[in-house]
């Protein structure tokens, strides 16, 4: 049976990790995979997380199964961070998932169960894992242009036009903040227009929130969710804690659903539980348990928020520095989060790797958190020299 398989290409983002590691050149620069890095080039465990893990080690009395929902306390503690004052009460359902990826996959499965082969409107370029997840669940993709490489900004008119061509029962997969791979987010005015269109057309929003707190702040970064919820009866939110709690390999996330009524939420909830059971049965506990301890403790939560603010400040200052060194990079200062996509060909990306030991995926996406005050000028010079 297995000899019927054919060779598959590796993950274009994760394969940069190994290539960078194998390069012996000092001064090499990794702007590849999307993990936050400090000025020292490290991706440390948060202080607040270390403290929460110590509490967990001390107080955890059992590791007995929790069930397909995972840690309900985690889900409930995260809920106000996502919805704030816009919490739809009994219309909310959901569960803990293995990372944002697990939440996306479960959301896609739920949509496919309700409406097999549903159409999903998807802005391009997007995170390379979005298309395979939709494909695996048999959903149909309707791509449209999200980003204009010339202006380095959202092409809002094309987004509105695409979404306005959707019909009742269609889905729109939208990234809420820190757009991966372009950093080009919707502003509030654009979110309001998108929300009106989704409401008018009867489109189900599938909101991908993987970087809350890394753009402008925890509250500001959830604006898209809250604006959309004012205009639509139902929505799905795939949430990742892997960046904003620094949990990455612990695979921590949640799927939040909002249904039209409490009864519809109860039914949808029973379906996501059944789908989770058939996929991973129960999510891994550690990251969610530690995140819950942070969120439930005012002092730890305050420290967590301060650490997030530090990360955000570093990202913003690297973006500003890029623009100050070379005006061609100035538009990057208006973008959010770790990612930007430079107008580089795969051949130029190869030259940066071979001649300058600068590592990024072939798409020309860079992680600005891989830059430091010490290497940013060399980075700009190298990029300019291959352009
Ligand atoms: N969505 C986007 C846009 C992402 O960049 C990521 C990154 O990992 C995810 C979802 C999934 O996050 P996780 O690592 O928690 O699965
Ligand atoms: O886009 C990124 O770099 C992050 C990390 O299969 C990531 O989202 C990349 C690829 C992948 C899972 C996570």
UniProtKB/TrEMBL annotation:
Gene Ontology terms for molecular function: transaminase activity
Coiled coil location: none
Source organism superkingdom: Bacteria
E.C. number(s) listed in UniProt: 2.6.1.-
Residues covered by the Aminotransferase class I/classII large domain: 27-382
Pfam annotation, one family: Aminotran_1_2
SUPFAM superfamilies in alphabetical order: PLP-dependent transferases (SSF53383)
TM regions (residue ranges): none
InterPro entries per record: Aminotransferase_I/II_large (IPR004839), Asp_trans (IPR000796), PyrdxlP-dep_Trfase (IPR015424), PyrdxlP-dep_Trfase_major (IPR015421), PyrdxlP-dep_Trfase_small (IPR015422)
Required co-factors: pyridoxal 5'-phosphate
Keyword list, A-Z: Aminotransferase, Pyridoxal phosphate, Transferase
Complex and partners: Homodimer.
PANTHER family with a match to the protein in the record: ASPARTATE AMINOTRANSFERASE, ASPARTATE AMINOTRANSFERASE, MITOCHONDRIAL
Entry's family note: Belongs to the class-I pyridoxal-phosphate-dependent aminotransferase family.
Protein name (Swiss-Prot/TrEMBL): Amino acid aminotransferase
